[in-house]
């Protein structure tokens, strides 16, 4: 099992002087592979077992901590993170590659989530209902699950841990976090900040290592009551099946093949800008990235020209440098995958409207850079229209009506995010109604999410409930229903 969205693991090497173990992960900057951030020791299944044991002890203390108090730890962590925004963003850019402004946005998003869930400490609760019985009150309590596992991907190394760990903690659980092997340092900073904010040791533990060992051990451990995973469909399906076998709760947030539909009455400049942002932001490495542009043929040529103009103007390079608009892919495997899909697009007969090459001029040779790439005249059934590429590759398809746009857009196995650019309210509402996706944007890009609204998808994009907002908290709790006859006599009349 791997969290690298189905891709092979990053470079590892035996530690000097040791035998087969311990091994280390060589954490490198994808914009410049000569920049090694750290050698991070890889942990093992035994480390997982020890972490779970420690977490079981920590759970008893944390569970007894009043929820508003738990929330205050998150609130303090949010304040600490805000004062370190620049430092965190720079580390994120060096470790993952996204450009500095995107890294700052990601850190801010994690902070928003800490703030939201800090407030939930005051609101965790159930409901009361009248009873069929006299002198009887019915109510529910929300309780923590115990020890839970959280497995996060490399593409949002700060925000993903933030949005899964924060609700798990405020609900009173002890958490074992397995960050992606490509980005362990940012995740470690998150843990350090929470502990500095007052989180007792052992309530959150980081385990770093290959999914096939550390991830598997976590998913199989009988004391791990729930697994929250984000990554590829292939791995998510495995996690779901294995955890289900021992009846643990599972939430999987997986891939996407997100489309923007553009109708003739759209503001085409706005649409082009939104599509470019969605397709090439974060180098296309986000599950909500725009990878399909489904445009009405009346405006197809004009829109694609506008997209191509904008794509060509993007400066690709090291995300720490001013003026750079798109960073590298995260590693050599991701680069190989994207170049492979570009070749597939060519072979399938799509028209390469721009991009398509790896960039190796000067310092770029030291990193995993590709051009923003646009294919036009793409066939809806082709692989580049159906499969998640997870890179800066946009496939454009022309259609003749909204119904056809919906058929094409719904004709993929995923159902995460979607968007329509149009003015007519009727058209927009028909799209909102007919689209098979967990999230719909109107006149805005497919990417992003906000702490206060549920995030997640349907079909192959997600299973096990939504993340963020109150819904994200529900996953990390169990409900207890209480039936209370406060006179001690009402049950005599109970015929139910
Ligand atoms: C976003 O688009 O801001 O792995 C968040 C991902 C998603 C997060 C996307 N889980 O890309």
UniProtKB/TrEMBL annotation:
Biased composition range(s): Polar residues: 1-16
Residues of the Aldehyde dehydrogenase domain: 25-482
Stretch list, region Disordered: 1-28
Top-level taxonomic group: Bacteria
UniProt keyword annotations, A-Z: Oxidoreductase
Pfam families on file: Aldedh (PF00171)
Listed SUPFAM superfamilies: ALDH-like
GO molecular function: oxidoreductase activity, acting on the aldehyde or oxo group of donors, NAD or NADP as acceptor
UniProt xrefs under PANTHER family: ALDEHYDE DEHYDROGENASE-RELATED
Family note: Belongs to the aldehyde dehydrogenase family.
Record's protein name: Aldehyde dehydrogenase family protein
């Amino acid at each position: 099992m791997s969290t690298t969205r189905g891709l092979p693991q990053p470079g590892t090497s035996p530690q000097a002087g040791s035998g087969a173990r311990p091994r280390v992960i060589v954490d490198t900057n994808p914009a410049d592979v000569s920049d090694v951030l750290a050698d991070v020791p890889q942990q093992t299944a035994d480390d997982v077992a020890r972490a779970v044991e420690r977490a079981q002890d920590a759970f008893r203390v944390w569970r007894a901590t009043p929820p508003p108090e738990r929330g205050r730890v998150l609130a303090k962590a949010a304040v600490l993170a805000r004062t370190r925004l620049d430092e965190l963003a720079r580390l994120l850019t060096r470790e993952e590659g996204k450009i500095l402004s995107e890294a700052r946005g990601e850190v801010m998003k994690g902070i928003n989530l800490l703030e939201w869930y800090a407030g939930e400490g005051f609101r965790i609760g159930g409901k009361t209902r009248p009873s069929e019985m006299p002198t009887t009150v019915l109510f529910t309590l929300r309780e923590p699950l115990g020890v839970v596992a959280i497995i996060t991907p490399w593409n949002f190394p700060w925000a993903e841990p933030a949005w899964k760990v924060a609700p798990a903690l405020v609900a009173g659980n002890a958490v074992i976090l397995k960050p992606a092997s490509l980005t362990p340092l940012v995740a470690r900073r998150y843990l350090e900040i929470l502990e500095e904010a007052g989180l007792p040791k052992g309530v959150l533990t980081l385990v770093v290592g290959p999914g096939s060992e550390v991830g598997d051990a976590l998913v199989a451990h009988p004391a791990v009551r729930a697994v929250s995973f984000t990554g590829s469909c292939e791995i998510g399906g495995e996690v779901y099946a294995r955890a289900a076998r021992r009846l643990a709760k599972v939430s999987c947030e997986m891939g996407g093949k997100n489309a923007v539909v553009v109708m003739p009455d759209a503001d085409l400049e706005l649409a082009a800008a939104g599509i470019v942002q969605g397709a090439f932001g974060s180098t296309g490495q986000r599950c909500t990235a725009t990878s399909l542009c489904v445009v009405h043929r009346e405006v197809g040529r004009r829109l694609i020209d506008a997209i191509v103009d904008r794509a060509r103007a993007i400066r690709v390079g090291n995300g720490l440098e001013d003026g750079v608009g798109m960073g590298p892919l995260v590693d050599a495997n991701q680069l190989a995958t994207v170049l492979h899909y570009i070749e597939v697009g060519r072979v399938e007969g799509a028209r390469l409207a721009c991009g398509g090459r790896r960039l190796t001029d000067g310092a770029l040779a030291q990193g995993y850079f590709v051009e923003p790439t646009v294919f036009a005249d793409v066939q809806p059934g082709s692989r580049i229209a159906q499969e998640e590429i997870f890179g800066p590759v946009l496939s454009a398809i022309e259609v003749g009506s909204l119904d056809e746009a919906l058929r094409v857009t719904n004709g993929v196995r995923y159902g995460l995010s979607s968007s329509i650019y149009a003015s007519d309210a009727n058209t927009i509402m028909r799209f909102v109604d007919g689209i098979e996706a967990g999230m719909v944007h109107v006149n805005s890009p497919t990417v992003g999410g906000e702490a206060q609204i549920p995030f997640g998808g349907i079909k192959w994009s997600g299973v096990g409930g939504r993340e963020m907002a109150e819904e994200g908290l529900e996953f990390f709790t169990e409900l207890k229903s209480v039936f209370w006859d406060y006179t001690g006599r009402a049950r005599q009349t109970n015929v139910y």
